[in-house]
Design a protein that fits this description.
With 445 residues, the protein is α+β, with helices and mostly antiparallel strands. It contains 23 helices and 13 strands. A hairpin with a 3-residue loop joins strand 8 and strand 9. It starts with 7 loop residues before the first helix and ends with a helix.
Amino acid sequence: MGVIQIPEKVHRIIGTLAAAGHEAYAVGGCVRDALLGRKPADWDITTSASPMEVKMLFPRTIDTGIHHGTVTVMIGRDGFEVTTYRVDGEYEDCRHPKEVQFTKSLIEDLKRRDFTINAMAYNEEHGLVDEFDGVGDLRRGIIRCVGNAGERFTEDALRMLRAVRFSAQLDFTLEEHTKAAIGELCGRLQKVSAERIQAELVKLLVSSHPERIRDAWETGITRIILPEFDACMACGQDNPHHIYSVGEHTIHALQEIDADKVLRLTVLLHDFGKPAVKTTDERGTDHFHSHQAVSQDLAEAILKRLKFDNDTIRQVKKLTYYHDYHPALTCAGVRKAMHRIGEELFPLYLKVQRADILAQNPVTQERKLADLAEMERLYKKVLKEQSCFTLKQLAVTGHDLMDAGIPAGPELGNILNHLLEAVIEDPQKNERERLIEQALEFYKG
């Protein structure tokens, strides 16, 4: 286990509380990460002092969640959450306690936490407080609830998805009783807000082990939050291009793509349309015609359901639709593809294609990867030559055509698009006078 080194500002807060006669410890994820040799993103502090006592000791505080005992103490520009030891009352919405009671017992406070690895506290005077063997579970590489797993998940249903998310981030396995309790209680996730589901799902997907989404499927979580994934897991692909079910193909592809939110979401959703369009011919071969369009529609519906922002939805939709698009392997073909997919998304499209190929039948991969390498070569050539593939690169503008006598309106836009198509096919045609002349021929003709 790593050595816990408390930052100076955290040490100052703990020291100030201790000098006033209060207990104070760093607690939770920061202790876990320090023991694992990771740099904690945040340092949280737990204390026997009441919120008002905390506020009296520090000149700058913010009432972050004062009714639940949390005050943010500002040291310079940095904020640190300081929370009074508490015992949670009855949970009313599968997520939040109806009320909390403050306590003077650190152990009582640690008892209410989700997992043993998050229920450790530390200060330099008393060392590590590890009542529930969090260090042992870190060594064993398991996610285990504090106390009774059923009680912890009944209190806060989101903890079930958090368990899988931690398994993905840390490459840990779910402890037997913890996993069984998720299977029994996962239906309670229906009561958790879409925003909180989204946040945990994204953390799982962009982790170093996105394949742990299989844990979410095995425990029944995806049946509640992402039933379309379950349909993919049940959808076989008896096809020369594939050796996995749609779901298993997706899991393998997730492991082949960068840990980026848009890329991982695209790979997760890219084949969700396959179960709906699957057909089997007389030879027993499965086909999935038009699955790209259906997957795009499902991606949009799912991302809206999970309250994703519009820009993420826009990018994932387009990448999902074009994930299986194969342009002609010529400069003109690649320019057309760049125009369709967009300058911003085309490099991501290439990464999605690679991940998709690497999760298919190895027998077919060599030729497909060679074609992809050629497309990447042509893409770099187009960029180097600064060939035109967007309207903004066209040598004429709408104002130029209006000055030439073509009135504003839909026809003007159509003419500009005709000119762009011609230039994409032959970049040498991207000359202002020549394009104006061609535009007038279109208009008069």
